[in-house]
Amino acid sequence: MKDALPTVDPGDPDHRSPGRYLWWLARHQSGPLLRGIGWGVLWMASLALIPPTIGRAIDAGVAARDVGALSIWSAVLLGLFGLQAAAGAMRHRRAVFCWLSAAYRTVQVVTRQATRLGAALSRRISAGEVVSVGVSDVEHIGSALEVVIRGTASVVMIMVVIALMLATDLGAGLAALAGVPVILLVGAPLLGPYRRRTRRLRELIGELNTRATDIVAGLRVLRGVGGEKLFAARYREQSQRVRRAGVDAARAESMLAGAEVLLPGLLTVAVVWLGTRSALAGAMSPGELVTVYGYAVFLVIPMATLAEAADSLTKGHVAASRVVAVLALEPEPEGEGDREPARPADLVDPLSGLVVRHGRLTALAAASAADARAIADRLGRYTEVEGADVTYGGVPLRDLARLRERIIVAVNEDVLLSGPLTATLACGDPARDVDAAIATASAEDIVAEVGRDAHVVEAGREFSGGQQQRLRLARALAADPEVLVLVEPTSAVDAHTEARIADRLRRMRAGRTTLVCTTSPLLLDRAEHVVFVEDGTVVAEGTHRDLLDAEPRYAEAVTRNETADRAHGTA
Amino acid sequence: MGAQILPVASPRRVRAYARRLTLRHSRALAGALTLHALAAAAGLIVPRLLGDLVEDVADGRAAAGGVVAAIAAFLLAQGVLQRQAFYASARLGERVLAELREEFVERVLALPLSVVERAGTGDLVSRTSRDVGNLAGVVRFAVPDALISLVIVAFTAGAVALAGPLLVLPGLAVIPLYWLFSRWYLARARDGYLRESEAWAALTDGLAETVAGARTIEAFGLQEQRHRRTDADIAASWARERYTLHLRTVFVPGVTVCLGLQVSATLLVGGIGHIHGWASLGQVTAAVLYVQQLAGPLERLLSRLDELQIGGASLARLLGVDEVPPDRAPSAGVVSTGFTRPVLEARDVRYAYRAGRDVLHGVDLTLRPGERLAIVGPSGAGKSTLGRLLAGVHNPRTGTVTVREDGAADHRVSLTDLPLDELRGQVALLTQEQHVFRGTLRDNLIMARPDATDEQARAALEAVRWDGPDLDAVVGSGGAPLSPAQAQQLALARLVLADPHTLVLDEATSLLDPRAARRLERSLAAVLHGRTVVAIAHRLHTAHDADRVAVVEDGRITEFGSHHELLRAGGSYAALWRSWHGADDEASPGRTGPGVSPDGS
What we know:
Shape of chain A: elongated
Strand order of the largest sheet of chain A: 6-9-10-3-11-12
Strand content of chain A: 5-15%
Low-confidence stretches of chain A: 561-571
Number of helices of chain A: 22
CATH superfamily of the largest domain in chain B: ABC transporter type 1, transmembrane domain
Distance between the termini of chain B: 50 Å
Distance between the termini of chain A: 84 Å
Number of strands of chain B: 12
Strand content of chain B: 5-15%
Number of domains of chain B: 2
CATH architecture of the domain at 347-570 in chain A: 3-Layer(aba) Sandwich
CATH class of the domain at 347-570 in chain A: Alpha Beta
Structural class of chain A: alpha/beta
CATH class of the largest domain in chain B: Mainly Alpha
Mean pLDDT of chain B: 84
CATH topology of the largest domain in chain B: ABC transporter transmembrane region fold
Oligomer: heterodimer
Low-confidence stretches of chain B: 584-601
Largest interface: A-B, 173 and 175 residues
Radius of gyration of chain B: 36 Å
Helix content of chain A: 55-70%
Largest sheet of chain B: 6 strands, mixed
Strand order of the largest sheet of chain B: 6-9-10-3-11-12
CATH architecture of the largest domain in chain B: Up-down Bundle
Mean pLDDT of chain A: 88
Number of helices of chain B: 19
C-alpha cells in the first residue's frame, strides 16, 4: 500500500455535527474508500458468478456429456475463485486501511485538542469521557468507515443479482425482488432485543471488570486486614449476574441465528419452487435451476452485510457525537499576549495583596489550603478575576508573551509522564540540568535504585507517593523557569528529606523568582520571605521566626501544635 | 520495575485443566454438540434434495412439489435446530466463563502476603482485565465457532462421500495444501496479533495519559512532544497492523484458491464420472454444492485457530496465579490467642529485597505491651521494611520476629508461623497506600471483621472522627467521592474494628491536614488504649507524642529513647526538632526546645 500512516497533519476537523465529522473523515480518505468499493464489487461479483458457472457446467458439460465444455467451465470456475481471492484481498487491504486511517486520525485530533485545552480540559469535561474516546469510540468510528466499503458493494450486488435472476426466470426474480426487503424488514425487529441485551451485558461486564481490578488494586490492603471471603462472595454474586445477562443475550442472539437460516431459506424455497415450475414447463434448464438456487443462497451474504452496516453506522454516529463534543470545547481563559515584562519583574496578585519579589525565594503560608491554591491558580492564569489582573513586571498576564514558558505553577495533581526516567524529568530537553534538579529534590536514591533510563509507567504509578512528589519537584526545577510556583511540594515527604530539600531548594533557585505555598515549618524557615494569608488576603509578612513570635495565628497554622503547646512554647 | 513475578502455568497443566473442565461439563457439551450436528445434517440434506430435483426436472417428472415441500421442511428444521444449538452452547459457555473468572479471583485473593507486597499490581491487573477478557472472547465465540465449523466440515465430507464415494478424492487431494497454508499462518499469527494489540494498547494508553496529564503538558510546554509521541505510536501500530495484514493477504486468498481447486476438481471428476456412467447428475450436483458450501465454515475454522492459541496463553496466565508457593507454613498447634499482654520482639533482624543488598542490618527491638513507639528517619532508611517485618508480612532474612506473653520468655511464636487469621488478631499493618473499595461504606469497614454489627461499625467511625457519608453510602470508584484524608480515616476505622493487639501505622495519617492528623491520633490513642502502636511518621509531633522514639538511619536504629532523652542527647533527632519547631540555631545544643511536656502543661 502506498499510503503511509499517520498523516503528518491530521487537518482541522469539522466538528459541527457527528455526521459532518464522519463525512470529514471520509473525504480525507476518499481515494482508498472508492478503490475499496470497486474491489468490493468485483469480489462480490466473483462470488455471485459462481452459481451460474456451476449451472452452465452442469448443463453444457455434465448433462450434455461434453468433456471439452466441462473442462472449460471447470477452468472458468477455478478462475472465478482466483478472482474472488485476489479481489477479496485487495478489498480487505483497503478496508483495513480505511478503518485504521479513521481511527488514527481521530486519535490525532483528540490528542491535539487535549493539549490545546490543557488545564481547562478537566474543568470542562470528565477525563473518563475523553478516555472512552480512545478505548471504544475510535474503534466504532473505524468500523463505520470500513463498513461503507462492504455496504456499498452489497447494495450494488443485491441489485445486480436480482437483475440476473429476473433475466434467468421472471418468477424467481420477482420473488427475490419482493423477498429481500421483506427479509430485511422482518429481521430488523429481532435486532432490537439482541442489541439491548448485549448492551446490558457489556455494561455488566464492565462493572464486573471494575470490581475485579478494584480488588486487585486494593489487594495489599485487603490481604492486610482481611475480608477475602466477603469480597469473593460479592464478586461471585456479580459474576453470576453477568452469566445470567449473557444467557439472556444469547437467547436473543439465538433467535437471530435461527432466523439467519430460516428467512433466506424461505426465499430459497420460493425461488426453487417457482424455478421448478418453469423448468418443468420447459422454460428453464436443470442447470439454470441450480443457478437461481445459487443466487438465492448467495443473497444471504450481502443482506447480512447490510444489517451489519446499519449497526456499525449507528454506533459510529454515537461515537462521533462523543468525539465532536470533545472537539467543540474552547480553551479558557482565552487569548495570549505579546508584551515583555519590565525588569526586574515582580509577580503581583492585587486580589490577595501578594507580591512575589524578583529573584527571591518567597513562601506563602495559608491558614486554608484552598486559599493558597486559588492564589497559585491566578498566578498561572488558570483562573482570572475580572478587574484584578495579576501582573508580571507590570504587564497583565493576559497580555504577557510566552506566559507558560516564564511561569510554571507546579501542583500535586501534576502527573509524571511515561518514558525513560531522566528524559521525562528533562521534558525531553537534553540541555536541562536534570542531575542538579534531582539532587535538589533529594531524589538521587530513587534514580540510583531504578536507573537513569528506567521506564516510568503511566503516571509513575510504580513509585510511592513520596517518590512521585520528589520526581515531580525535580522536573519542575529542571525546567528552570523565570518564575516557579510550587504548591505543597513536600507534603508527602518525611521530615529528614524535607529539611534537605528546603536547604537545597534555596541554593538552586538563588537569584530566581520562586514562590512556595506550604505550611511546613522546615520550608518556611528557609525562605527569604514569608507571607501569611488568611481568608484569601495577605495579613502578615516577614521571616518565619519573626512571624512565629509576632503572629499567634501564623504560629497556630504552621507549627501543627494545638494552642496548649503553643502557649507553653511562648511562655 | 514492572517485572513479572507471578508464574505462568505449563502447557501440560493447561491441557489437564481443559480436560477437567470438559469432564465437569461433559453432558451439557455432548448435548450442545448433538444439536449442532443435527442442524448441520438438516442443512446438508437440502443440496441433496436439490440434486434430486434437478434429476426430476431433467427427466421431466412432475412430482417435484413433494421435493420442494421436503426442502422447506428441512430448512425449517435446520432453523429451529440452529437456534437451539446456539442457545445450548452459549449457556454452557457462560457457565464455564463464570467458573473460570470466579476461580481466578479466589486464587488472587489467596495470594501470599509477601508476593502481593512485592509483585506490584501491574501484572495482576493485566491478568484480571486483559486475560479474563481474552478468554471470554475465546469461550464465547472462538470455541463454539471452531467446534461448529469442525462439525459442519466433517458432516459435509461425509455427505459428499454418501453422494458418491469417489467424489471425496479431490477434497482429500487438496488437504495438504490447506495444511501448508494453515501451518505457515499459525506459526506467525499469534505473535503478530499479540504485538498488534500491544501497539494498539500503547496508542490508547498514550491518549489516556495526554488527557490525564493535560494540565502538566500545558504547564511544561510538552504539546509538540505529545503530538510526536502519538504519531510515533500510530506509526508503530501501523507497522504491526501491516504485518498481520500481510499474513492475511497470503492466508485468506490461499484458502480461497484451495477451495476453488476443490470445487472445480469435484465438478470435473464428477462430470467425467457421469459421462462414464458411475455418477448420476443428482450426485454430481449435490457434491459440487456441498463443496462450495464449505467456504464459510472452513474459513471460520481456520481463522479461529489463532484465537484459540491466544486463549490458551491467557488461560496459562490465569492458572499461573495458583502456582505461587505459600510464604508461611502455619505449624499445626501454634496458637497465640491466649496472649493477654503480648510482647513483640525483633532480634538481630536483617532483610534484603535483592540478594546481597541488605536494607536492615541487624535491628533489635522489643515492644512493651501498650506502648506507643514512633519510628522516624530519612526515606529509604528501612523504616517501612522494619514495619512490615514487625507486622509479619515478610520473614526476616536472618534473625527472628516473635510474639510471647509478657513475663513468659520460654513460649515464643514466630509471626510467620501463625495462620493468617491469628496473625491479624495479633498485629495489623496500615500503610500510606489507601484504597477505598467499590461498594458500601459498611463493606469497606467490616471486611476486617465480617460479623461486626452496625453499632460497632459506627463506633469505629466515631473513633476516627468520621465526617463522611453513612454506612449504606456507595463509595469507591464511581461512588460517593472520599477525600484522601477520609480514605485514611476509613482505613484507621477498619483497624479499630479489627482490634489487633499491635498496630503498625506506616505514615497512616500523612494525607490529613496537620492539625486534624494530630487530633485524630490523639482520639485514636484513647480508643486504642492498652494496644501497642508502632507509628512510622514523617511528622515530628507523632514522635513527640509517643512513649519512645526510634531513629532509623541506613538500616540501623541510631537513636532510641523518649522524646526528651533524644533532645538531650543532641543527635540528629534533636537537630531536626529544633529546626522544625522554630527554635534558635541548631548549633545551640543547650536549649531543649519549647515542647518540654505537653501533657504536663
